[in-house]
Fold Phosphate import ATP-binding protein PstB.
Amino acid sequence: MSSVTPAIASAENSEALPDQTLIHIEKLNAWYGDFQAIHDLSLEIPKHKVTAFIGPSGCGKSTLLKWINRMNDVVPGARAKGRLTIDDDHDGKRTEIDVLDPNLDVVGLRRKVGIVFQKPNPFPKSIYDNVAFGPRLHMKTTKAELDELVEWSLQKAAVWDEVKDRLHGPALGLSGGQQQRLCIARAIAVGPEVLLMDEPCSALDPSSTLAIEDLIFELRSQYTIVIVTHNMQQASRCSDKTAFFFEGKLIEAGDTELVFTKPKNKQTDDYVRGKFG
Ligand SMILES: Nc1ncnc2c1ncn2[C@@H]1O[C@H](COP(=O)(O)OP(=O)(O)OP(=O)(O)O)[C@@H](O)[C@H]1O
């Protein structure tokens, strides 16, 4: 493996570790203009796990997700107060990134925290250029290193075999499921630590959905993944932790199995049993 390919902790090692919080959210409040979308929300998101955000439409799942990499900066009137930090290790020294700091280097944050959207959104470029886009912007690589990184990313995203013979063909010529895996490859090519996924399968057919779910489950040994989903089976199939939101508040969070089988809260119980939402 060359120096440009992100270093990976082995799944075995990360599984052996107890939960370690990577993202700390404390008393977060968020607004769109006068409307408060998130109320006093505190949540710890563990490292190298999949955390699912669930809850009925409009409960604030995407708003919270988008504050984690400051995507809401581009939404007029969006603001947030409270603490939202991400642990950062630099040369063995642990520091934290204060995500809500107005002076934060947002480009650097987004390199560390990638996002995959509901609808696959490849650039109207070749498959190769989609994956090479971020590395060309952020890294100094030789052509050979870039080729290696593009292949590595496409392999990680489980789409290499399907595209290796058409790397210079148009990304928009791929199927929806392939495009979404390409977007995952594009996100991981810059070596993020966190992957945010906002309903990544909602535009996909059942077999592409299963392929993405398998991929999410596999990627969690190397990335901290947060997924917003309306699909209860998906949350229970591919997440380790689940957080249930209602009307901008966190109602319950814990091990996915417990949230689904023995929820502490009646509202959670009703929601996971499909009584509302
Ligand atoms: N750009 C915006 N401007 C104003 N209000 C917004 C904006 N985006 C979201 N909201 C409001 O904030 C609340 C939370 O929205 P959010 O998109 O976070 O909910 P969600 O739980 O992700 O919903 P869904 O499951 O339907 O995607 C909703 O009442 C929504 O109407």
